[in-house]
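W.,

You were right to be curious about this one. When I first looked at the sequence I had no strong expectations either way, so I just let the prediction run and decided to look at it fresh. Below is the sequence, 290 residues in total, followed by the output.
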Amino acid sequence: MWKQSRYGKGVVRGERPAEPERAAPPEDAAERRDDAEVGDEAYVNCPFDEAQYKAFVRALVESEKVEARDFEQVRYFEGCLPCEVMAARGEQTLSFGPMKPVGLTDPRTGRRPYAVIQLRPEDEAATAYNLVGFQTRMKYAEQLRVFRMVPGLEEADFLRMGSVHRNTFVDAPALLGPAMELRALPGVHLAGQIAGVEGYVESAAAGFVCAMLLAQKLRNEPLRPPPPTTALGGILTHLGRKQPTYQPSNITWAHIAPLDPAQGKLRKRARYEAMAERALRDLDAWWAAG
């Protein structure tokens, strides 16, 4: 096990090992943000070789899970799947998901490991860690058995077992109006996760947007939502997009209005930088006009 955030953003003793892998893709914004929020040397990495990885995946698939009750309809959010559900979708699914080794270099070999599980500190003193991306519906005894197969966790003291939580949200495009108000119950506004967003930052942002729109309504002002060129406006864009089966989403570039075609075709990094600069300008103008 060793400490390192992806792409050399935080390594033990402050040294940066040789990184044979390619640089981080610019579209990997969520991963980079995650590293930036928790700081250098945030992650402890548990590396797997090929045999260890395949044995671990088999154990996940074959483990005993908590059965759904008769009244439960099991529907998982694609962005937060239990690890055993991902494992059942294919042997390599986890290696392209929470166990992807890209941007990491095992200091013992100077190479990228076959797969890795990352641990993130739960408190400032780093007295407890969680397994990043490992939601699970395995029974508790099975969790102890399977997770002790992780290299380095053979004798770990597990303080809290994993469980699947329920996310409640509405079909926002069908049920919410432009002010995040229930069409069937005027005067009832929904904010945060229940409105149909995903993520802590997005839930807080949705609450802020809802409060701004409600304040405008109470002052009998015309609604002035954040511009669709901004991330705040992108939240409303997603809440208003009709889909056959609506699912919450973290903010992505796809929620933000594209650039004017007159600007020509830009490479991905340049396009995202131009969209970010435009968003800041438009947000400043929207705020100043309020």
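Here's what jumped out at me. The mean pLDDT is 85. And, maybe more interesting for your project: The longest strand covers residues 115-121.

Coffee later to discuss?

I.
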